[in-house]
Amino acid sequence: MEKIDLTLNINHKPVEVRISPNDTLLEVLRDHLDLTGSKESCGEGVCGSCTVQLDGKPVRSCLTLALEAEGATIRTVEGLADGDTLSPLQESFVNHGAVQCGFCTPGMLMTADALLKENPDPDEDTIRKALSGNICRCTGYAKIVEAVAHAAHPQDQCPDCASGLKSCCKAKE
Amino acid sequence: MTQYNIIGTRMPRVDSRAKVMGKAKFTADLKLPHMLVGKIKRSPYAHARIISIDASKALALPGVRSVVTGKDTEGVKWGVFAYTRDQQFLQTDKARYIGDEVAAVAAVDEDTAQKALDLIDVTYEELPAVYDPMAAMASETELIHAEYPNNINIHVNIDTGQVDENFAKAHYIREDTFTAPEESYFQAEPYAVVARFDSDDCLEVWCPNGGPHMKSKPLSNSFKIPLHKVKIRRIAIGGAFGGRSEICPADYICALLAKKTGCPVKIEFTREENTIATRQGHAMITTHRTGVDKEGRVLARETTCYMDGGAYSSTGPIATSVPFLSMEQAYRMGSVRYNGYRVYTNKPIRGMIRTHGRGFACGLDTQLDMIAEHLGIDPVEMRLRNSRQPGEYTSTRSLVGSCAMDETIQKAAEKSGWTEKWGKLPPFHGIGIGTNSVQTGFPMGIRGGSQSFIKFNEDGEATVMSGVVDNGQGNENMLVQIAAEELGLLPEDIHLVNADTETTSSDPGSYSQVSTFVGGQAVKNAAANCKAKLFEVASKILKVPADTLAAKNRMIYVQDDPEKCVPIKKVVRVALTNFISVNAEGGYWPKVDMKREWVSNPYGQMCEAFSFGTTIIEVKVDPETGQVTVLNCVACQDVGKALNPLVLEGQFEGSVAMGGQGGMLTEYHEWREGRCLNPTMLDYKLPLACDMPPIHNIIVESIEPKGPYGAKEAAMSIAMSAAQAYAAAVSNAVGVYMDSFPVTPDKILAAIKKKK
Predict the structure, then answer these.
(1) The pLDDT of residue B756
(2) No. of H helices and E strands in chain B?
(3) Residue A78 and which of B21, B219, B239, B315 are 20 to 30 A apart at CA?
């Protein structure tokens, strides 16, 4: 198949790639650009592990052709942090124990990040519905939902909101 | 109670920062120079003789570097035990299930590898196949394995004696049969393996695993190379749940392709392959016959279980025993006779899974509820009358040390409002209880113990080496917490080197719930030995006896005079300057009965500690649709000691999701003549965020005297008891005891109709 030269805007940087027209966005991210944070788990658009944002909307990169992403602003999990500084959502995931095996985490974060941009104050029901396209086999979702809810609105009564990354052994302080 | 600095805190896991940044590398993320793509050709038949394999067309395809078949394996066979070696990594004589490995290719890219697979010409002669254990035992057609009459792979017989005598004394006896189909792990990460031989002919492998040392030994045997030449590397792992402990044929095949081509090879499973060609949970048909006295105390029980084992042995002897053992630990039985039969069928291979024997366990609990109803006893009271007590021996003669079974039942009942709800809920609204007990380890022979080595660097930080692997449950964090606590350092001062067979000593792996108890304890002991060396040096600096010292916050100080102190960094530098070693090793070997064997001698001390859990579930059933809405969940477990409540709660919640919500409501496989009809996430219904009920976690700490800081197995008892609680709650809501699991809407509607 004839290769195509394409410029993609990924995490605020223009990136040039030479792809096949049938390459998915996930394949291009992982295989061409070594952005392996986005994961393939089901390969058929069910599990959400490959979720990235196109112009702020969460999409399944395993079902999106790279060609379709031309001209869009693409954001992957690698683009969430500001250098070494985690986004409040990433920090909340860490502090609330929302990460276990971590394979679904990048997709979960991209969906949740898009939700919070659209609705900065979602209730639990809204969060659960928004995350229902992202399958997690480890956590039972409780800590993920809590991490999303508390990311924008830390709770005084939550034992895990108070902790910053640096104070990882709180009881010691 | 002892005060700890780091143990018992809600410390966020050390591995989560890399994971939220997308930096954690899983096997499929690896890229090595000149790496080839490996793919496996699988049998399309459930049972077929392999007449010939012609790979010439595939080999002629440009880009194909190697094709391997059973002829290249020298007939190597795998089995967990010497007496269960029945599986070739690539079949030579016949295929025994749809998905059995018959050939493999290595090519320059995925498209070429896929094309090559299609060009491999395999001629089969189809054989009659059997798809359920009862038919397999009765079958008169060709045996699946010639040396196993009636296709019976494993028979476990346990008999405590006095069973018939005690049945004769019983006030009430009943017999019930319960069934459950196969289930799958659906780890988030599909199986993948990367292998290469380096310039010294060492085999280097990256793959998800439940214990690197359990992978290295069979690879060493298969390739006839010494163990030090097999280097299983640490890699992030996207879940295991019992399904990644054994060697996978793909590990061997990948290494074989790497050997043949001289290049690194990567095999990535599709989701379907992960379901079909790794392991599944056993389908089970279980009959419990139970005799009780007037107060509902079990005097005698006879349990017979037929398990669909699929095409090969896998962990057969263990899998045939564990559902029974979990129940004999949870409940006292005056006497018991157990016959477990694992039967070969022409279906995918069954192994260990987190909710081991949901139909088995639920059956036993459901029957207790039936007996309780007959005798007019509340289900909670029924369990308290039969629950395991500390200091007792199980039926198979394991001494139970710490045990807060009663406390878990009482606390869960109280939190759920059991007394106010039982028998008082509106129609189609129900509440149910389940309890269970899980082993903290199995007798594992030479691989039963773990050793750790700790070295100090001149900056006062420590490198901790341990064979313990992290499948996602937080084992790495557990090791860091223990090392930091014991050495008086902060978690960020600990550099962990783990799950690497080149640098770490033998370890049982994340298997049989033993990582904290054995591997954690090994690190604790190594750290204690290190600390003793540090204190010797510090005692000379501070001019006080070593036994007056303690360590905390990077300082060594005099316990009665904390102002008198010296930084650990300084102690290390003084030691190095004076050529004094402050590095140390330590190990832990559980004291189990090494003569205990799953089939030949299923008696004796199984493990050093048992956990106990209770789950209570409240549901509402829609009588028109059979749909179940779960209103509330209380999960309560005796974990010995919570080393990190934040991590532990996550384990409880995940256990409820897999064991209860998925395991008892939606998860099961459907088949057509040995072909799994729902191997993908689209068709196999996993719980979603919107499905899960509120979960109230209650941690009970019985402080196991033999465990590190009092810890023992944590959360598996929730996975197991949640299954039972879900089944009980639905049974209570519809007024019919459900005996076929999972309790799907069709079964619920049928039960409601039958009751009318």
Answers:
(1) 87
(2) 19, 30
(3) B239
Does the pLDDT at position A169 exceed 80?
A: no
Residue of A nearest to B661 (CA): A140
CATH code, domain carrying B500? 3.30.365.10
Q: Which residue has the higher pLDDT, B445 or A41?
A: A41
Which of B20, B31, B471 faces A105 most closely, judged by CB atoms? B20
Q: Do B653 and A142 touch (CB under 8 A)?
A: yes
Q: Are residues B478 and B562 in the same domain?
A: yes
Q: How far apart are CA B239 and CA B508, in angstroms?
A: 17
Average pLDDT over residues A96-100: 98
What is residue B360's predicted lDDT score, i.e. its pLDDT?
A: 86
Residue A163 has a pLDDT of 61
Look at A97 and B650 and tell me if their CB atoms are within 8 Å: yes
Write out pLDDT tens, residues A77-93. Answer: 999 999 999 999 999 99
Q: Return d(Cα B471, Cα B27) in angstroms, integer.
A: 13
What token pair was written down for A158?
């939550």
| Shared domain check, B483 and B351 | no
pLDDT on residue B153 = 98
Of B236, B490, B692, the CB nearest to A169: B490
Our CA-based measurement puts residue A147 at a distance from the nearest CA of chain B, in whole angstroms, of 12
> Cβ contacts (< 8 Å) between B647 and chain A: which residues?
97
CATH number of the domain to which B70 belongs: 3.90.1170.50
* Residue A166 banded pLDDT, cuts 50, 70, 90: very low
Q: Looking at the structure, do residues B685 and B552 belong to the same domain, yes or no?
A: no
What is the reported pLDDT for A152?
84
Claim to verify: residue B568 and residue B678 sit in the same structural domain: no
**What residues make up the domain containing B252?**
28-127+188-239+244-276
- Across B262-350, the runs of DSSP E, i.e. the strands, are 265-268, 283-292, 298-310, 336-344
B237–A101 C-beta distance less than 8 A: yes
The answer to the question of residue B180 being in a domain is no
Interface A-B: count of C-beta contacts within 8 A: 218
pLDDT lower than 50: segments of chain B: none
Q: Tell me, what's the pLDDT at B365?
A: 95
Check if B591 contacts A (Cβ < 8 Å): no
Taking a C-beta distance cutoff of 8 angstroms, is the pair B45, B124 a contact? yes
pLDDT score, position A168? 40
Nearest beta carbon to residue B653 from set A40, A143, A160: A143
Hey, which residues does B494 pair with through a beta bridge? B462
Contact A169 B189 (CB under 8 A): no
In a domain, B348, yes or no: yes
**Residue B473 contacts A, CB cutoff 8 Å:** yes
Collapsed DSSP state (helix, strand, coil) of residue B454: strand
Q: Cα dihedral sign for B672, B673, B679, B685?
A: positive
Q: Which residue of A lies nearest to B647 if distances are taken between CA atoms? A: A97
Contact B187 A101 (CB under 8 A): yes
User: In DSSP terms, which residues pair with B283 in a beta bridge?
Assistant: B308
Taking the CA atoms of chain A, what radius of gyration do you get in angstroms?
Answer: 17
pTM of the model: 0.97
Work out how many domains chain B is built from and give that number. 3
Contacts of A96 in chain B (CB under 8 A): 646
Residue-level pLDDT at B1:
66
In a domain, B167, yes or no: no
Q: Is the dihedral of CA A68, A70, A73, A78 positive or negative?
A: positive
Strands B230-232 and B203-206: parallel
> B82 and B221 share a domain?
yes
Q: Which residue has the tokens 């590398």?
A: B25
User: Looking at the partner chain, which of A35, A103, A160 has a beta carbon nearest the beta carbon of B239?
Assistant: A103
Same domain, B515 and B605: no
Q: Which domains does chain A have, with CATH numbers?
A: 4-79 (3.10.20.30), 88-162 (1.10.150.120)
Last residue of a domain, one of B229, B260, B276: B276
Contact B219, B230 (CB under 8 A): yes
**Contact state of A78 with B22 under an 8 Å Cβ cutoff:** yes
Which residues in chain B are contacts of A143 at CB distance < 8 A?
A: 649-650, 653
- Does the pLDDT of residue A171 top 50, yes or no? no
